[in-house]
């Protein structure tokens, strides 16, 4: 019990070291054009709009999803992997700022979506994790889209997290509440997609939510929907036994389900302790031969991303730095490298990715000779 209390106290203290951005960052700012990028992003949310506020969504649960579109300006000197939050009056020269916003009907959202997908662009769906606010999820998706610099549009699925480090159990209930809405969104995305160009990215507890939605779709016989998806789970906060049962229902994906892990993820250590010391998928050790065997058997690709920098003090947000490497990773894939498209256990070589050698087999790390 002392161990649990100590680790949770550490997480609370780390989580309170920096201020959290409020809903005011969602206010549109009139700004002159800068040399930075502009990202158009959509949000589908099961959060309830806060009473008396123009555009603020908290932890209340909405009976029906709401839809919004934002244009976000990325500062010219943006550092990849980071979000330059406004401190004081927003300044597009140095901050992420919203330059336009619009609440949409479901029909308007689907109309926009159809146009995006029919034009050949990819849609990247980001499902955030525990302890996230609406605005944090939106800006994180914009950061990853800007850093990846690919021909795509980000869509955020924002479920009603409390955005508080002490709200772990409440967040799990809120994620459960949102399963059907996420499954419905995946159906909408797949129906509008002429090819396999819907990328689903679930982080932490959001990864559990993604797997639950996929499980629901498979049980409903919606194989047509799942066939249009490419799925990536980052630091998944999922009990390993639960994950095994989810995989039994979801089955193999093409390309394989990709799982990004770090065995030194402190947030997942805390989650494990809260769950009676049950191991979490996002903290698996890919150098364990049994993990490699299981990955190949189940058709899953585990990738250790521990070489990437983390900015949250927990080693839980390394995925944010991965976006900047995506162009090189895609170049490797198109050049015939098959490590990116097969099941197994791998280690990301962050330096190698810059010279088109992104992965080395985990077994070679342990036994280089």
Automatic annotation (TrEMBL):
Gene3D superfamilies: alpha/beta hydrolase (3.40.50.1820). The keyword Endoplasmic reticulum does not apply. Keywords: Signal. InterPro entries: AB_hydrolase_fold (IPR029058), DUF900_hydrolase (IPR010297), UCP033909 (IPR014586). Coiled coil: none annotated. Residues 1-23 form the signal peptide. The keyword Signal applies. This is Alpha/beta fold hydrolase. It holds the Pfam family DUF900. It comes from the Bacteria. The lineage of its organism: Bacteria, Pseudomonadati, Pseudomonadota, Alphaproteobacteria, Hyphomicrobiales. It comes from Rhizobium rhizogenes.
